[in-house]
Amino acid sequence: MMKGDGDNSTGVVLITGGTGLIGKAVQNIIKLSDDCDPEYRKYKFVPIGSADGDLTKYDEARRIFDQHRPTHVLHLAAMVGGLFKNQSNNLLFFRSNMAINDNILRLCDEYKVIKCVSCLSTCIFPDKTTYPIDETMVHLGPPHDSNFGYSHAKRMIDVLNRAYAQRNDQIQASDESHKPIFTSVIPTNVYGPHDNYHLKDSHVIPGLIHKAYIQVQDALKKGSSEAYLTVFGSGKPLRQFIYSEDLARLMLWTLFKYEEIDPIILSVDESEEITINQAAQLVADACMRLEPKVKLLLKNDATFGDGQLKKTACNHKLRKYLPDFKFTPIHDGIFKAVEWFWQNYEIARK
Asked: What would the mean pLDDT of 216-232 be, rounded to a whole number?
């Protein structure tokens, strides 16, 4: 448990999925960041992970809520995986995530949580759509076939949020100032320290970081000055990547400042969109900074599919609220992520 500055905390923030990529970033911002809003530190932050209970089971989730009695919830927990794990496990991803999300929001309602912010994904948007996508387009068509199970389960969080809001509007509350808000954020592709670096099941950047590390270490053992980083697919799909600590700052702002039920996209600007090959090159460049003896070259394996070719997201809504928010430049963020993995290889999730 992370305590606020004083013994008399303002409330308790339960972070589901608190041991993962975003949960760890939230904890780092609260504990270490000089620019963290001091108001946030008045709360107790309680990160929980899979070792604390199985959130697909209502009774286990209820035990966690009963133990910690949260006033606020950052709901980050999910069954997640990269493109290829999603493609072969759509039923499992749908059922598991539906159970997790229904349990968490039901318990937020039962325990009278003031605010719950759930984390969605840009994969929830329709596959056939116009770009850039924005918050009004979530339900305007089916998502991409590659991860339809996960995508539909995540969409249902928005449906649940609206349904609870409608029900709450119909109840004559004795104190309107304490009407709960269940809302959601839609981040673009997240990367940073404490990710899942599994070679088959990870997302694109952590997977590339792990593969690059192995290739560099193998080249050093062989006395070779060159190595190859294999990029699955053509490398042409476009993505917007957001550094995990930037997202953590924005999620804390959402938890304490954002008052809408409607979701909000948390993303870098459209101009920051890059190809998968460009991201891979940044990973290779970071590795060569850390180990200049090995030149790391890219090669593409076209036997693998590309998934969705683009998911360009519009952050105009975010910019209306926070016009001056500064995102970490991707070359700096990827270097930090690569450096963390190299320094923590033995303990990293892989």
From this structure: 96
**CA angle 330–335–340, rounded 5-degree value:** 130
Q: Which two tokens stand for residue 122?
A: 């840009």
Give the number of C-alpha atoms closer than 13 A to the C-alpha of residue 39, restricted to the C-beta side: 5
Tokens of 126: 């329709």
**Average pLDDT for 294-323:** 93
pLDDT for res 5: 44
Task: Round to whole Å and give the CA distance between 117 and 79.
Answer: 17
C-alpha to C-alpha distance for 306 and 309, rounded to whole angstroms: 7
Containing H/E element for 159? Answer: helix 148-170
For CA atoms 6, 7, 8, 9, the dihedral sign is positive
| Alpha-carbon gap, residue 274 to 289, rounded angstroms | 21
Q: Exposed/middle/buried for 66, CB within 10 Å: 0-12, 13-18, 19+?
A: exposed
Report the predicted TM-score, pTM, of the whole model to 2 decimal places: 0.92
DSSP string, 60-100: HHHHHHHHH--SEEEE-------HHHHHT-HHHHHHHHHHH
Token match 């490398």: residue?
235
- In sequence order, which residues have a C-beta less than 8 Å from that of residue 32 and are 6 or more positions away? none
Tell me which amino acid residue 121 is.
S
Q: Between helices 204-222 and 330-343, what is the axis angle to 10°?
A: 60
- Rounded to whole angstroms, how far apart are CA atoms 199 and 16? 25
Tell me the catalytic residues. Answer: 150
3-state secondary structure of 295: strand
Rounded Cα gap, residues 260 and 243, in angstroms: 24
- R_g of the chain computed on alpha carbons: 20
